[in-house]
Amino acid sequence: MTCECLIELTHVFLDKTFTYNVPLELINKICVGMRVEVPFGKQILEGFVMSISKDKGDSSLKSIISLVDDYPILNKELLSLGKFVKNTTLASLMSSYSVMLPKALKAKKKVNMNIKYDKYVSLNDIDLSLFKLNSSQEKIVSIVMKKGKVLKKELNSISVSSVNTLLKKGILHETSEEAYRYNLSISDKKDFVLNKEQNNIYTEICNSLDHDSVFLIHGVTGSGKTNIYMKLIDKVISSGKKALFLVPEISLTPQIISRFTSYFDSIAVLHSKLSDSEKYDEWRRINEGKASIVIGARSAVFAPLDNIGIIIIDEEHSSSYKQENTPRYNAIDIAKWRSGYHKCPLILGSATPSMETYSRALNGTYKLLTLDKRYNGMNPDIDIIDMNEEFKKTNDYFSSVLINSIKDVISRGEQVILFLNKRGYSSMVTCNNCGYTEKCPHCDITMTYHKSSNMLRCHYCGYARKKEKECVKCGAYYKEFGLGTEKVEEELKTLVPDSKIIRMDIDTTSRKNAHESIIKSFAKGDYNILLGTQMIAKGLDFENVTLVGVINADISLNFPDFRSSEVTFELLNQVSGRSGRGNKKGKVIIQTFNPDHYAIKYSAVNDYISFYNEELSIRKKLNYPPFCYIVLIRIISKDYDKVSKMSYKIGDYLKDKIKDEIILGPSTANIFKINNKYRFQIIIKYRDINNIRSCLYLLEERFFNDKDIRLEIDFNPLKL
Ligand code: ADP
Ligand code: ZN
C-alpha cells in the first residue's frame, strides 16, 4: 500500500504530494485526512494523507514513520474545500488547509497540545447492604446514586479518603473524559415572538431550507435581524441539522453571545480571543458533533460542522470577513461553497450591504428581503454639524451643539457614545520652527503621539520611542496636529465636568477580557460616556444610550481608496445605530468638514438606496467593482532596486500575456514603505477570471526564485 502526502512546507515548488509506502502495521489504521510523520530529505516532517492506493508498494520509496492522529483531521468536505481555497486565492494547498485548523492540529512538527481529562466516578452494580459505610461514605454514595456520574473533584471535597476507600472496595469506579476548557455560562431561557415584518422574512426563508439559495436581509440597524436569525436557527436545529453563524470579530461581544445562550444550548464559540487550547477544545467539540450551533468570526467559516442546515453571515459588508494574509480568502465565498455542498441557504444580513452584494440582490442573484423600520419604531434624529463654521467661531474640535447635548443627556441620567476613528493623542507632531515631522524610521508614515506613556508610536509596524520635548533637528518646540481618542478624553474632562468617561481602543483593550469588562461596566452605568474607535461602532446594544456623537466623520472619507465613501457611509450608519435602542428616542450628531458629501448627506437621512445609486454611478464612470473584479499584485522587498526592477518586469510580462483586461501600474503602494520594506503594486481590473488565472498562477514560479522579494496576490482586496 502507498499513499500520497502533502507535507508541511508551504513553498510553491513543494505544493504537490509525495508518495510513501505504508508499513504493514499501519495499513489497517491509516485514513485519508490524517496527519502522518514522514522522512523528507534529512528531516522528519508532518503531512496530510491525501489519498491511499492499494498497490504493492515500491521498494524505492520511503515509508511513513507514524500516524499523528487516530482520526482524520480533515474530513471529506474540508479536503475538497481546501482545493477551492487554493484555486480561488492561488495560495498553496498546505496553507489553505492550515488556515482551517486550530494551531494544535496544523500539520507542523513541534506543536504539542495536551488534551485535558476530567475524572468521574459512578456506582458499580453491587449489593450495598454487604458493606458498612461511615457517614461521609454514605453521603458520597447517595450523591452518586442520585446524579449517576459525578466529577471526582466534587466528591473529593467531601472526603478524599472516603472516595478512595469506596473505589478500593469496588463500590465506585472511575472513568476519564476529555475536558473542554472553554465554558459558556448557561443562562435562563427567554422566548420571543417575531413581529409581522420579521415573520414574513422568516417564512420566506423557511420555504427554501433545502436549497442553496443566497438571501440578503437588508434591514436597518435595530430592525431585529438577529431575532430572525435565532428563529431560523431554532427551526434548523429542531430538524436535526446544524447552524453556522458568523459575526465580525469586533461585534462578537458578550452581548451577542448572551442573547444566544439565553435562547439555545449546545453552542460552540470560535474567535481570536480564545487561547490556543480553548480553540482546540471547541474545535474538537464541534468535530465530535457535540455542538449544533457555531458562533464565530471569520475563520469559524471552516468549523468542522457536519450536516449544516443554514449559514448566516451578519454585517456581511464587514471588512473583517476578508483575510489579509495568505490565503487571502473572503469568508462569504467560503460560506457560499459550503452552502452549495450542504444544499442549505446562506443568509447575508446588513443595514449597509456592500456595493457588490446589493447589486447582486438587485439583479436577482441573491433574494432581497427588506426590513425598513426599527423594531422599537423609533429612528434617531441625525444632525450634521459643519465644522468649517464651528472652527471659525471657537477653533475647537467640539461644536457647541455636541457639548451641550452631551451635558443634557448626562444630566438626564442617560448615556453617550462618542466615536473617533483614531487612537492615540495626536496623529502628528511637527516642529513649530523648521517644520520637521516625526516619521517612523521604518515606515513611510507619521508617528502618533501617545501622551499617557509619552511615546511616539508607529501604528503600522509597532515601532515606538520616547517623545522629546524639543525638535530633534532644530531644538524648537513641537506642535501637535490631529486628534486622537486620548486627547478627546482629556479635553472632555474639562469641557464636561460631570463626565465619567471610559475609553475603548486598541490601547485600552490589549489585556484579555478588557473588552468585556469595559462593556460590562458601561452597561452597568459606572460611566456615562463610552469613547472609542471602530471597536464601538458595531453590535453594541445599550438601551440607556440616547446620544451618539461622531467627532470627525472625515477620517475615513479622506482615505485614498475607491471604497472610502462606502466605508464612511457604513461606519456612520453603524455608529448611528447605537443610539436610542431602548424605549427612549435617540439622537446622533455628526461633525464634519464635508457636510455636502453624498456619503454624509445620505447617512443623515438614513437613505441607503440613494447612497447606493450615487455611488454606483461613480463606480460605473471609473470602472470599479461591481462593474469589474479587481486583483491586486503586490511586490515587496527591502531592496529598493530589486523590487522596482521586478515590478516592471512583471508588469511587462502581464501586459504581454493579458490583452482583454485592464492592467494598471506598476506604481508605488499607498504606503510606500512598511517595516523597512518597499512596496510596489499592479492592479488588474478584470471581467473574466479565465483571462488571467493561468498567467497569475505561473507568476511565482517564473519570477520568484529570489528570497529577497515577496509576491502577494490578493483577489477582490478591500483596500488598495
Ligand atoms: P439588528 O440585528 O437588526 O440590529 P436587533 O436584533 O439587535 O436588530 O434588534 C434590536 C432590538 O429589538 C434588540 O434589543 C432586540 O432584542 C429587540 N427585538 C427585535 N425583535 C424582537 C422581537 N421579535 N421580540 C422582542 N424583542 C425584539
Ligand atoms: Zn513603522
What's the structural blueprint in terms of helices and strands?
Layout: E1 2-7, E2 17-21, E3 35-40, E4 43-53, E5 66-67, H1 76-89, H2 93-98, E6 117-123, H3 135-147, E7 149-151, H4 152-156, H5 160-168, E8 172-178, H6 196-206, E9 214-219, H7 225-238, E10 242-246, H8 254-261, E11 267-270, H9 276-287, E12 293-296, E13 308-314, H10 331-342, E14 346-350, H11 355-362, E15 367-371, E16 381-386, H12 387-394, H13 400-411, E17 415-419, E18 428-431, E19 448-450, E20 455-457, E21 464-466, E22 478-481, H14 485-495, E23 501-504, H15 514-524, E24 529-532, E25 545-550, H16 554-557, H17 564-576, E26 587-592, H18 598-604, H19 608-622, E27 629-637, H20 640-657, E28 662-674, E29 677-686, H21 693-703, E30 709-715
Parallel strand pairs: 9-14, 9-15, 10-12, 10-13, 11-12, 13-14, 16-26, 17-24, 17-25, 23-24, 25-26
Antiparallel strand pairs: 1-2, 1-4, 3-4, 3-5, 6-7, 6-8, 18-22, 19-20, 20-21, 27-29, 27-30, 28-29
Helix pairs in contact: 1-10, 3-5, 6-7, 17-18, 18-19, 20-21
The chain binds adenosine-5'-diphosphate and zinc ion (ZN).
Overview of the structural elements:
- The chain is α/β, with parallel strands linked by helices.
- Helices cover 31% and strands 24% of the residues.
- The chain has 21 helices and 30 strands.
- It has a 7-stranded parallel sheet, with helices on both faces.
- The model has no long low-confidence stretch (mean pLDDT 90).
- The site of zinc ion has 7 residues, from loops.
Give the number of helices: 21
Attached small molecules:
adenosine-5'-diphosphate, zinc ion
Shape field: globular
Q: What's the helical proportion of residues? A: 25-40%
Strand content: 15-25%
What strand order characterises the main sheet?
11-12-10-13-14-9-15
**Stretches where pLDDT falls below 50 for ≥5 residues?**
none
